[in-house]
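ugh ok fine here u go
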Amino acid sequence: MRKLTKVQKQDIRNLRVKRDEDIDFSDAPLVLDWSKAEMGKFYRPQKKPVTMRLDTDVIEWLKSDGRGYQTKANWLLRSAMIHSRAQSTTGRSRGHRNRRTKR
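structure:
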């Protein structure tokens, strides 16, 4: 990432002292339609390499669409994580237990 110029730093300092109501947004109209927005264009979550043991048929299915099987696996796991979190915050836990816990 490039360093900010002196002018950019000064602009940021000037904006910090202004109240939100005093900032002129007339040259940046409000966007209500986000259907053409690109996800992940400017933010990339930090990645960490892991080793997992998966069933052969699962790996074959992930790779069946060609390149990007790790991205597909990450997307599927993230979707499951979001779904699980949403259920736990609404109190709809299904009572799944970790296999290692004693009953």
